[in-house]
Amino acid sequence: MRIAIIGGGITGLAAAYELTKRGHAVTVFEQEKTVGGLAVGYKKPNWDWSLEKFYHHLFANDQETFSLLDELGLSHKLIIKRPVTANLVSTIQNEFTAIPFDSPLHLLTFPGLSLADKLRTGALAAFCKVYPFWQTLEGITAKKFFTAVGGKRAWRIIWEPLMTGKFGHFDNSIAASWLWARIHKRTPRLCYIDGGFQTLTNALAKIISKQGGTINVQYPISSIQLKKNSNYWKFEIGNLKFDKVLITVPASVAHNLLPIIHKSPTIDHLSIPHLHAQMLILETKEPILRNVYWLNITDRTFPFLAVVAHTNFIDKKYYGNRHITYIGNYLPDGHPYLSLSKQKLFGLFLPFIMRINHSFHWSDSSDWSDLFIGYNAQPVHQLHYSRRAPKFETGIPNVFLANMDSIFPWDRGTNYAIDLGQKAAITIAGE
Prior knowledge:
Blueprint: E1 2-6, H1 10-21, E2 25-29, E3 41-42, E4 51-52, E5 58-59, H2 63-71, E6 78-81, E7 84-90, E8 96-100, H3 104-108, H4 115-130, H5 142-150, H6 152-167, H7 176-185, E9 190-193, H8 198-210, E10 214-216, E11 225-229, E12 232-237, E13 240-242, E14 244-247, H9 251-257, E15 274-284, E16 292-297, E17 306-309, E18 323-331, H10 342-356, E19 368-379, H11 385-388, E20 399-401, H12 414-428
Parallel strand pairs: 1-2, 1-14, 2-10, 7-16, 14-20
Antiparallel strand pairs: 3-4, 5-9, 6-9, 7-8, 11-12, 12-13, 15-18, 15-19, 16-17, 17-18
C-alpha cells in the first residue's frame, strides 16, 4: 500500500518504521527542518551531543523503547542513573530549600506532614504502584480520591500545588486515573540516550529510508484531497496519491487538513482542552541547582512549574562543560507568558531563580538562553477521558489518527509515542 504519514514526530516515525518493515510504500511529511517532534534536538557549536528542546528521559520500565533500541542496534547507547527528584519547600524563615522526594525514606523525613499523613501518603503511593485497574479511577477526580486516601493536608502540601501549576483552572477536574498513572509508571532510575534522543530519531529516519520509505522535511501540508475512484477513496497530497493516510499531528490541525473528519460520528476529541508547553533553556557557567535533577515548584507564587537541571543527570562535558537547566511551564491559550521574548521571560523568572539559589550569578557575557513552545502539547485528562480520546479509526475509510491525545491514562512521553505508532501501523496494515 501507498501510505502517507502526516507528522514526523516519534509516533509518525515508529509507524513508518513498522509499515516499511512490512513492505509498504510510506511517505512521511514533516513541516520542520528535522524529524523528532517534541523529542527533536538541537546542537550548539561547542557541544558534542544534541539537546532536546523539551526535557526528556526514560523510565526504567519503558519496555517499548528498549525493545526498539535493541532492534535498531542501539541498546548500548542507554545511560541509566538515579538522579535526585525534589520538592521546593519553604522554611520558617520564608526561605526555600530543595527536599528530596523520591523514596519511602524521603517521605518519612518530609517536613510539614504528621506521621499519620506520611503513612497515608505511603499507602496511597503503594496502592497506585500495585493497582492495575485505572478504568475504575476515571470517574473520580484526583482531588477527591487522593484526599480521601492520602488526607487533606497531604493533598494541600504535596499534590495540589503541582496539579494547579500544571493544569491551572482545570486542576480540580483532572481524573484520578491520570495522577495514578504518574505514580504507577515512575521509577527512581531514569534513562537517557547517548548523544541525545536525536540518536534515536536519526536511526529511525535512516532505516525508514533504507526500507524504501521517504521522509520529506520542511514540507507543510495545508490540505488532503479526497478523490473517489468507483467505490474507493484515493488521497492526494501535493501531486502524490495514497491509499491510506495516518495523521499524527494535533486534532485541531488534523481537522484543518481534512475537514470531513469533523463530520465523523466517532470524533469527540476537539472538545479536549489543551495546554502549551513553554521551555526556557539556560546555559550557564554556574549551576542553578546543586545535586538535584528535577525540582518540583510547590509554591504557586513562583511563575514556573519545574526546574530541571539536565547536567545534574548527564555530564556537562558533553555540553562544553556548561550547565544546562530547563525551566518549564504549561500554559493555556492567551497566557501572557506565551507572547514574551526569552529576555523578558528570563527577567521575570530571575528573581525566583535567585530565591532557589541565592549564590547564582547570571553572566551577561557568557550565559545564554533559548525559548521553545510546544503548542497543544498537553491534553487535559478530565473525567472519563478515554471516551473522548481519539481512536485510530476516524470513521472515514482509510484515514487514521494517532497523536498524544490517544495516550491514556498515561501522560505524553517517548515510550508511549513509540507504542502508539507501532499499534497504529498494525491497525493500518490490517493485522
